[in-house]
Amino acid sequence: MLAGSIFILSLAGLPVYGQSSASSASAASSTTSSSSVSTTSGVSASSGTTSVSVTGSGTTSAVGISGSGTTTSNVTKTEATALTFTLAVTNPTAVPLASITANETSLATIPLPSTATPATSIVAANYPPMDKVPPTDSSEVQAWIAEVQATPTVAGGCPANLQAAQDTSRCWWYCTGCVRDTDVQECPDKGTWGLTYDDGPSYYTPNLLTYLSANDLHATFFTVGSRCLQFPATLQEEFMAGHQVAVHTWSHPYLTTLSNEEIIAELGWTKKIMKDVTGVTPNMFRPPYGDIDDRVRNISIAMGLTPVMWTRMSATATFDTDDFDVHGGLASSYGVLNNWENIIANASKIDTGFIVLEHDLFEESVQLATGYILPSAMQQNFTIQPVVQCLNKPMTDAYIETNNNATNPPAASGAVTLSSGAPGSISTSPSKKNSGVSLKISGTSSALALSGVFAIIALFL
Ligand SMILES: [Zn+2]
Questions:
Q1: Do 274 and 231 contact (CB within 8 A), yes or no?
Q2: How far apart are the first and last CA of the chain?
Q3: CA dihedral of 83, 88, 92, 96, whole degrees rounded to 10
Q4: Is pLDDT larger for residue 50 or for residue 219?
């Protein structure tokens, strides 16, 4: 039986690749008067040339199918040497059919209408041999391997990993605030607040959803995969209510301490359960504790997840309410609101919008959000939006299945990114990303003085 396999029809000498299927066989049989090709099995049974009539350009033509066996490899072509019909229209400049042969002399080709000048000169010697798997011992490949093979950190954060914290090429946000262009750390437009809640869904998330709905507010929920498994209906309600849902890992670990394989498992399982529950796959993610370095970044981006942090003006001015710590007794409700006041004051000093760290895992943080923080924020006329929308992108761009490349094209590397300065952004104002807001460290910069590193580390003790 040839069903599903490829065979070749010889149409007046022109090879046409077709697929043996019930539909094509029945289409052929509808115009066949005396053919064995009335069903798919009829094709497989052919043992010699079979005449089949097909309709083309209003003309019935003869098509030869040669087959001496029942497998594709035994099917041979019959080369026609003349047309048995007349095409209705041909190109006046067409090369004569008799000249289009395997051993024809190559003719002059048409030059491209225009050519772009590459940013760097393309020299073949600078690349691996064409059409072969490139060797892995080149400096370029070794550098790419190193991007995802940096040694994981050990438990204990910055003090326990001083060398890693001092390594500016690692770009470890948790210890130094270092961001890359792929990171989202603020909303581009001043007065805009990218509203986010982490660690849910939880028992208290419906309380928050009810308040948000009553006030026509929408947020980004960075959900933990394990909580999605525990509260799938709540995750679904977040999505259905028009909130953005995004990844916050499966078990909330310090990602820089995990192996590449473990990071992939954390992100992959969370993406999967969110897809299973909502039908869509998120393309944003927030690393727990903000614990991300280039190795974690590169893995997350390779998995289609853009890192989203929270705004950080300096080591002492992060947009973290510390609401998470009220439940554990490490912070007071008053302290959280004092932090909020400082955030508002700092927001007025920067020329971009901002993103704040809040949580919906515990009752206390939801009570503070719905009772105090959100009401006061609405009074202050902030534009409160999910992160994807504060980046001036439609909600559909928040998911792999609905992302529109017209407004959010893939980066040149092929990775999907959602940074606010992404080409094709529909932002009406130029991106102000990183303009005096964040501590930006390039991969080769050694601008960060060691004393500064230790000062920053001390803050995390
Ligand atoms: Zn978290």
A1: no
A2: 71
A3: -10
A4: 219
Judged by average pLDDT, the poorest of 35-39, 199-203, 363-367 is 35-39
148, 260 Cβ separation under 8 angstroms:
yes
Ligand 1 center–CA 408 separation, angstroms: 27
Tell me which of 334 and 428 has the higher pLDDT: 334
Distance, CA of 377 to CA of 59 (rounded, Å): 73
Residue at token pair 């960060």: 448
Task: Record the pTM.
Answer: 0.63
Active-site entry in 167, 359, 360, 397: 359
* Contact of 362 with 240, CB cutoff 8 Å: no
Give the tens place of pLDDT for each residue, 245-278: 999 999 999 999 999 999 999 999 999 999 999 9
For the record, the structure tokens of 461 come out as 């003790």
| 3-state class percentages of the chain: helix first, strand second, coil last, to nearest 5 | 35, 15, 50
Question: Can you name the residues that pair with 7 across neighbouring β-strands?
Answer: 18
| Catalytic residue, candidates 167, 183, 198, 360 | 198
Domains of the chain: 6-81 (no CATH), 159-459 (3.20.20.370)
Q: Which two tokens stand for residue 183?
A: 């990171």
Is 394 exposed, middle or buried, given 0-12, 13-18 or 19+ CB atoms closer than 10 A?
middle
> What are the φ and ψ backbone dihedral angles of 66, each rounded to 5 degrees?
-105, 135
